[in-house]
TrEMBL record:
This is Small ribosomal subunit protein uS19. The gene is rpsS. Keywords: Ribonucleoprotein, Ribosomal protein, RNA-binding, rRNA-binding. SUPFAM superfamilies: Ribosomal protein S19 (SSF54570). InterPro entries: Ribosomal_uS19 (IPR002222), Ribosomal_uS19_bac-type (IPR005732), Ribosomal_uS19_CS (IPR020934), Ribosomal_uS19_SF (IPR023575). GO terms for biological process: ribosomal small subunit assembly; translation. It comes from Candidatus Wolfebacteria bacterium RIFOXYB1_FULL_54_12. Signal peptide: none annotated.
């Protein structure tokens, strides 16, 4: 369920302080744990280190990201691949071709 329009978008206060404190052309990484914070137009061009539970994943904010949450661009689960008999045979054939 979306946030009420009368409340406005949720942007973490500490995160917004960090963004406004830096000069616009400053390319330092802003580390944050505020995954639920929405991306505001003031954040365009910045680089954020969004915590995924283990590491900080660097996210460069573009115009298309405005309105989305920071956590959407920092996956918390690592997909390795689906296994099974068919996948093993395909890997074996690829290795033989090399």
């Amino acid at each position: 369920m979306a946030r009420s329009a009368k409340k406005g978008p949720y942007v973490d206060e500490k995160l917004m302080k960090k963004v406004t404190a830096l000069a616009h052309d400053d390319k330092t990484v802003i580390k944050t744990w505020a995954r639920s914070s929405e991306i505001a137009p003031d954040m365009i061009g910045r680089i954020f280190g969004v915590h995924n539970g283990k590491d900080f994943i660097q996210v460069r904010v573009t115009e298309e990201m405005v309105g989305h949450r920071l956590g959407e661009f920092s996956p918390t689960k690592k997909f390795i691949r689906h296994g099974g008999k068919l996948a093993k045979e395909a890997d074996r054939k690829a290795a033989q071709k090399k």
